[in-house]
Specification:
The complex is a heterodimer of chains A (about 425) and B (about 110).
Chain A lengths: L1 H28 L4 E5 L3 H13 L4 E5 L2 H10 L4 E5 L7 H10 L8 E6 L3 H10 L3 E5 L3 H40 L15 E8 L7 E8 L3 E9 L3 H18 L9 H17 L8 E9 L4 E7 L5 E3 L6 E2 L17 E4 L5 E5 L1 H4 L11 H10 L5 H16 L8 E8 L4
Helix pairs in contact in A: 1-6, 3-4, 7-8
Chain B lengths: L1 E7 L2 E10 L4 H14 L3 E5 L3 E4 L1 H16 L3 E5 L3 H9 L7 E3 L8
Parallel strand pairs in B: 2-3, 2-4, 3-5, 5-6
Antiparallel strand pairs in B: 1-2
Helix pairs in contact in B: 1-2
Classes of the chains: A alpha/beta (about 425), B alpha/beta (about 110).
Chain lengths: ~425, ~110
């Protein structure tokens, strides 16, 4: 008597424990789970449905053969499918093939229902993309374990996919906002504005740290700049956007200049001071900032640690324009200006190190020398052709090797005859 | 990236091997930051085995210099290969980072 009582007490404890497991599992999986049972045998279908309902599945749908199952899966969304192998009209293999061809198996786990003697067919189903199998007659413990494990796995996979999708769409929006900071092309307007500019910005990931801008300063000057933030990705993009805004808001300093040199230096130093503030991760920006007097062709520039741009003149080797320290490092640093006088037809090409440090499959750099050579190949090209020529040359050099750095190219032409 | 670390004078010398670029910079930055703290902010960065330093790598060097500076420590860089020295010169880093030619000339 006492033995029987003990045994039944053990059973009720086990029941309580499994009830607790069930509650926890349902909590992990979430409420609205729907499962499709596909079996041509009505007794099997009903038995499985009752068990699934007892295990807390909110919605159990049933299909009598493969044709109905495929129709239902196309029309509705399920979290899990129990699929019999041998059925009239369309059997389990054909269902799996159909789902695989429609790319549905990545989102939808399928558990084969099969007699233990049919191990070969189970293996074939797993090869076709089924997630697992359950032997007939059903063992309640195994059913529960597989059901909860697969549903939880699916829930996690769905969450990962959803997070990725959200991240992608956030970054896509950030990318278009970043690319929107690059002005459209500037074209020469007859005699009074003989300046043409073309630019290309290609972040290596969705967003990057390269910066391009150009705009008129008053009636007679044209500001053009190209920069490169030390890092990559969203952090660099934020720093780049700050620099862009700071540069635009420093532009009015130009109106207060005593001469062009001091105007360029004042803008550069204003940006440097701002970028040194609130910079806890020690980002910095290399920046070339040039101002062209559109009437005389004189360019006054400050180069804050940026790879030297080239002045391109017919019959001469590309001339590099060198300078000093990057922006955002030290707010006490004094920036110096340089001056170069353009002759009609001269062009200037500014680029980021994503060009010169592009890598080929042999892990060699594109390099400064190659860029100078490539620029010398097109001594009379207009800005548009120059940008395209450099970009194409880098692409050919890299030959499909994935590039890790942002690419930025700007070409300016003064009194270029079309 | 492999980073070799050993005691040096009153501090630590750290020698990264290979390329210091955007791929290797995060690991190098963390290793150098930890070594900096352990060494009482007295650190020599031996760049003799670095073939390439990108702007992301320069940022790591800058962060180390600022960390050491903030703690009134000492931070030196030695043994720059010609192509790395060129990157330092182009970016003006030769003016803000203390550089010595070889490890033998470094004092911590």
């Amino acid at each position: 008597m006492s033995e029987i009582r003990e045994r039944s007490a053990g059973a009720s404890e086990r029941r309580a424990a499994s009830e607790e497991q069930r509650r926890q599992a349902i909590a992990r999986i979430g409420g609205n789970v729907s499962v499709l049972v596909v079996d041509d045998h009505p007794d099997n279908r009903d038995l499985l449905r009752r068990r699934l309902e007892r295990l807390g599945i909110a919605r159990v749908e049933m299909a009598v053969d493969g044709v109905e199952a495929v129709d239902m899966i196309r029309a509705d969304s399920f979290d899990l499918v129990f699929l019999d192998v041998m059925m009239p009209n369309m059997n389990g293999y054909e269902v799996l093939e159909r789902l695989r061809d429609e790319n549905r198996l990545a989102d939808l786990p399928v558990v084969m229902i099969s007699a233990l003697t049919e191990m070969d067919s189970v293996v074939r189903c797993i090869d076709l993309g089924a997630e697992d199998y359950l032997a007939k007659p059903f063992n309640p413990t195994l059913l529960r374990a597989r059901l909860y494990a697969l549903l939880e796995k699916k829930r996690l996979r769905d969450a990962v996919r959803e997070n990725l999708r959200r991240l992608e769409s956030d970054l896509e929006a950030a990318r278009s906002s970043q690319l929107g900071m690059v002005p459209p092309a500037m074209d020469p307007r007859d005699g009074e504005w003989p300046v043409g500019i073309r630019a290309l910005l290609e972040p290596a990931r969705q967003v990057g740290g390269d910066l391009i801008d150009f705009f008129a300063l008053g009636a007679g000057h044209c500001c053009f700049l190209l920069g490169d933030v030390s890092g990559k990705g969203p952090a660099a993009a934020l720093f780049m956007a700050r620099a862009w805004g700071t540069l635009r808001s420093a532009a009015p300093l130009w109106a207060e200049r005593s001469d062009d040199e001091s105007g360029v230096v004042a803008m550069m130093e204003a940006v440097n001071t701002r970028m040194c503030e609130a910079n806890p991760s020690f980002e910095f920006l290399t920046l070339f900032l040039g101002v062209l007097d559109v009437a005389t062709g004189r360019v006054v520039f400050a180069n804050a640690g940026h790879p030297p741009p080239y002045r391109i003149r017919h019959g001469e080797a590309p001339l590099p324009l060198v300078g000093g320290m990057p922006v955002g490092i030290d707010d006490r640093v004094r920036h110096l200006s340089g001056t170069i006088d353009l002759a009609p037809g001269d062009r200037i090409v500014v680029y980021s190190d994503g060009v010169t440090e592009a890598m080929n499959t042999a892990k060699e750099f594109y390099g400064d020398d190659k860029l100078a050579d490539v620029l010398a190949e097109v001594p009379d090209a207009d800005p548009e052709t120059l940008v395209a020529h450099v970009r194409r040359s880098v692409a050919e050099f890299a030959a499909g090797e994935e590039q890790s750095d942002d690419i930025a190219i700007l070409a300016l032409g003064w009194k270029v005859v079309e | 990236m492999q980073i070799v670390e050993e005691p040096f004078g009153s501090g630590i010398v750290v020698r990264p091997i290979g390329r210091l670029d955007s791929t290797t910079a995060p690991a190098a930055e963390q290793a150098i930051r930890e070594a900096m703290t352990r060494s009482g902010h007295r650190l020599l960065l031996d760049m003799g085995d670095l073939d390439y330093v990108s702007s992301a790598g320069l940022r790591v060097v800058l962060a180390a210099a600022k960390q050491s500076n903030a703690a009134s420590g000492r931070f030196l860089v030695c043994d720059l290969k010609p192509q790395v020295r060129q990157v330092f010169e182009l970016s003006g880093f030769t003016r803000i980072i203390s550089i010595v030619a070889t490890r033998a000339e470094a004092e911590l």
